[in-house]
Prior knowledge:
- 39% of the residues lie in helices and 16% in strands.
- The chain has eight helices and seven strands; from the N terminus they run βαβαβαβαββαβααα.
Amino acid sequence: MSNRAxxxxxxxALCAVAVMAKQSVAGEVKTRxxxxxxxxxxxxxxxxxxxxxxxxxxxxxxxxxPIAPLVAYSPAGAERFFAELLPPQVGxxxxxxxxxxxxxxxAARDLLGRGYGAVCLLNADSPxxxxxxxxxxxxxxxEPGERVVLGPAADGGYYLxxxxxxxxxxxxxxxxxxxxxxxxxxxxxxxxxxESVVLPEWYDVDDGDGLALLxxxxxxxxxxxxxxxxxxxVSGLLRDLAAANDGxxxxxxxxxx
Length: 257
């Protein structure tokens, strides 16, 4: 568990929004973006995503919703990387197990154990996720009554899950990293008798198709994905990569400088 202190506000009045994040190590993160990116470029993209998702949470917490921004990081021993990368107001939560399902399980249990009034677990793969989606999740969880808030991803998973109490069943018998995750999680919530609040769909950027969608949103017309967070770190990095990599430039449909 990290010793880095979370924001000083009374935890019970806050929704802890924790980004599930991996350290940017070449060859270990965003490997499905290779090619057109190199392993080093994919790691740099991961870092840019972390900066933008953390920045997005700062915007959401700035008077819009009672949010405590955190990063639930992996692997063990990566605390220094995140402490040096992220603003000091972003709390850190160390890992217990490596797999996605178990990481979510432990992050939920640990944060509620810290006394937060609610918890949202957020992916680090959607750098342009509209701030209003996070604000809406936190505000719905601040209302009386029990519920689960889910943000469905275009690939069948979810980009956000939120709740006020720990429900282990939400993480059981889930086919992680498949198109069935969101549907199965809804079924688990129904089994528990919980209201499910479904946010608008958004997309992940974990392969070439997702990168093309991101380029269209940031540099093109946006299509169905528009009005998202500006993602300045990702936007700047992609422009630099496109200037030096024809494959990236074509994928993003950017004109040569």
